[in-house]
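Below is our example:

___
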Amino acid sequence: MIKKKNNSYTLIRKNISKLAIIHQTTEISPNRLVALFLKSFSDEEILISKKTKDEYWDWKHDENTAYKYFKKELAVYLKGSQNDPSFLTMQEHFKSNYLTKDYFGENYYFLAGNYYAQEQLLKDFVREGFIAVHPITPAMSPKEVAVRNQKLGKISVKHWIGDITNYDYFSQAPGFMMQNVQQALQYIDLYIINILSEKQLDHELMKLSTNQRLEAKLVPKEAIRTKISKI
């Protein structure tokens, strides 16, 4: 159970449409996105002062519980919106108008492409090293082969942008490869921070929310069956 001891949860819930649009179109890690989102607020906006017998004290912010709460809210929101025409239109509008902005010289597509290139170089290096150190030999049992292939598969699997840094194999790459990935992530973080501060986006998402509520009201109720009287 997630204990709601600060305003992080209220802020996430109020802005879930914006966070969902950003997450679905940028493919950024949910953990990274919610951390960047909450950093855009001051401590006064997030923390809740709690009065004890002697003094006030603060419920401290816990990014891990905020991340779990965001994933829960995101799943609920997407279940009701993924096939909604207004949401799909907003996604395309967002891609065309916000991911193409040149906040500091490059748009998001260029930055994401650079990140994926650096990530792939690191993955390829670690994967080749793993294969060299752990080759399949005739003496291995089927279970040992399966375990070996499972570990290899974890290196090859596609991650959300930024999640690679949470895996143990990330630190097995040369230092310059890790630095290149981290530098690419810094530019992506900066781009996301700029998007989060877009007031026009807030206005457009407010209209989206209004349209969704209106569409929900206009859905015809299930026809009431006419009761047939027996003669």
